[in-house]
Every structure is written in structure tokens, then in C-alpha cells.
């Protein structure tokens, strides 16, 4: 009888503990709209920005452009100029950003809080390469190459992104994944296992290279390629780097049905709003 009493007491106590751990979670979808700014600076390009209104997750309409804001750009603490609206939420400034310069952007609108963000433009990556011909493909009329790449890392924290395009018979194809790369400095967040690949792995969408633990060194790797390919090595500032990585993670979550995947929020460095204000510098290699 005593044992039965203790058993019942344990069941009641356990039920009480489990019920006390339960919590009702409600999601607020009807948040007020905020300004969303997207602007990436590049020393090789004039400055463009896009300004829209945010929308609720249940809203499937297109983003509403905002054309009546004042967007001011500052360079190294001094006001540089005001971006001109050119329609459909797009703004333009005929100016090429300077590497290693710091830029701050301010967006003012009478109906919304003022947006602020800043970025420092990185230097163009110093990349060398040495191709070695493997074979010629008669049908495709291109050579298969084994290309040895070296990224001469600049001292200080840097992150690089590798992506490619290929031109065949006058048609250019955008590269999605970059396979057959093996190096300890590659971020494995988007690595896929594939036993049919040369190294048993490949990377989805882009390859992220971090210099953590290799600061100021030569980051060397081999990559099988075709003649007619364009390899782009992007040096991204800290904000654009986080934005790209989180965007790829969100896309991977939507494509792969993983039972224990964690939700990912796309990175934003915009104060009082959404979007991204970052910068990058790109070195392109044509094979």
C-alpha cells in the first residue's frame, strides 16, 4: 500500500512539473512597416541603393518602393553627397567608393525613424593562379583544368567568398556550387557529403574562406575548372559577410527537410529598420 501511495505521488508530481514547463507562444505578424535599405559598396562600381517598406510574413505581395526619402552618404566622417532617387525605390550616386575608407549612410523620411548604418570598404583580394591542363573535351570544345589558386591574405580579419560563371558557345551560366575543393580554412556551414566527388564533399552555392588561424598567410587550394570560366574572389566586410552567410543558411533551410534545423534570421546592420549596408571588393580570374 505504501508503495502504491509513493507511485501515485510520483506520477502527480511529474505531471505537475511537466505542466509547469509548458508555455504558450504567440507570434506577432502584424508589426508596423519599417524602411528596408539594401546598399552594397564596391570600389569598381558607382553607388546604388534600394529602399522599400517591410511587409508581414503572411503578405505575398511585392515590396512597396519608397521614392521620397533623403539618403545621405558620409565618407570618413565628412558628408559626401545625397543619393538621387531614380524611381521604383532606387537611388543613385555617381561616385566610386575608396578602399579602406569608412562610409556611413543616413536615410530620412517624415513618416519613419531615421536609418543609420556604416561599413569600411575592403581592399581587392590579391589572388594568383596557375592552370594545368588535364584534357580536352571535343564535344564541349573546352579544356578541363586543374587550377592552383593562392589568396595572399591581408593582415587583419578577412572573409572571402568564391563563386564562378562559365561561358560556353557564347552563353554564360552562373555557377551554383563549387566542388572538389579541400582546405582547412573553408567554412563547412554549407558543405554537402558526396562520395562521388574527388574529395567526398562539395559546397552549396558559394565557398566561404575565413582567415581565422591563417591571418596574413597564403590561402592555397586546387579547383578543377573549364576554360571559359570566370572565378570571382570576393572580399566582404563583416556586415556583408554575415548577410551572405545567413542568406545561404535560410535558403538551405527551405530546400532541405531537416528535422532538427534551427530557424535562421537574415543578418541586418540597419539601425531602426531592415536590410543591409555593406561593402566588398572583387578580383575576377578568367580561365
Automatic annotation (TrEMBL):
Domain of life, source organism: Bacteria
Protein name listed in UniProt: DUF4249 domain-containing protein
Organism: Tangfeifania diversioriginum
